[in-house]
Amino acid sequence: YKAKSQGLSMAFFSHEMTEHATEMVDLQSRLRGALNRGLIKPFYQPLIDLKTGKTIGVEVLARWVTDDGSIGPSPAVFIPVSEETGLIGALSETMIAQACNDIVRWQQEGVQIKYSINVSARQFADDNFCTEAFAQFERLGVDPKTVQIELTESVLLNNTERSLQKIQELKARGFLIALDDFGTGFASLHYLTLFPFDTLKVDRAFVTNIIEDKRQFAIAKSIINLAHDLDLVVVAEGIETEEQRQVLFDLGCDVGQGYLFSRPVAPDFLSNLLVA
Ligand code: C2E
Ligand code: MG
Ligand code: MG
Ligand code: MG
């Protein structure tokens, strides 16, 4: 072992730590292989106008499609790995390229919805990313007003001033900005006045037990009212039941997303949903 030859004792590492490290290296190399073979693909989850029941947008979510066509590890696992290993650049490149392809096709078919794209911390910190990644949409004739960039609080904590600059640049080009997973991060409410968001996404944590837990109901209600007072569109994530949909509609929530309406689906499947 390298560590031993350098005079370190393996006893410094617990069995779990070495096992974890080995798993990460394994996952990283499998992810690299999947990226090279085009197996990381965009899936699309509908966003529903709670007043009309219509699909007004979709969130683009990365899926690892394995060789036998089944779905591999979750993005909750491989996005952090890609961030740690620098693969996030290649990952977002292929995601945006494929999504652009799908979006242009849907536009030609007359589909009029918005497209939400997740951007992670390291991607956003990369100066080239913001200028170049989204230029693809513009080059392909996709109206930036139909493209919403989803950022989490953690993305903005890193370098607040630089983040604000980048957001303002993207806004000036017409892109929409959403604050994702609201309520679970470390940022203060002050962030809501600092950044020119268009949309606020209430984290699934406040939706899951909104019926059973008075406190979750109170928080969801307050977030919705706060967002409206700030002229933001509110999206509730993770709606799984009709009761949850009804309560959120009664609270005035604008948009819903969740398994009740649809799971994230492959592009061909979304085409069927949109045409039907
Ligand atoms: P997110 O942006 O908050 O995306 C919403 C997550 O909630 C998705 O998980 C979606 O599948 C899941 N979800 C939606 N409705 C329901 C529901 O009713 N019940 C439950 N239990 N879950 C629901 P997913 O696809 O596993 O993605 C996890 C996270 O990985 C995303 O959270 C996002 O932060 C990140 N991610 C996914 N794709 C990308 C990508 O292309 N780029 C980047 N940078 N991050 C991504
Ligand atoms: Mg998101
Ligand atoms: Mg979210
Ligand atoms: Mg999330």
UniProtKB/TrEMBL annotation:
It comes from the Bacteria. Coiled coil: none annotated. Residues 24-276 form the EAL domain. Keywords: Membrane, Transmembrane, Transmembrane helix. This is EAL domain-containing protein.
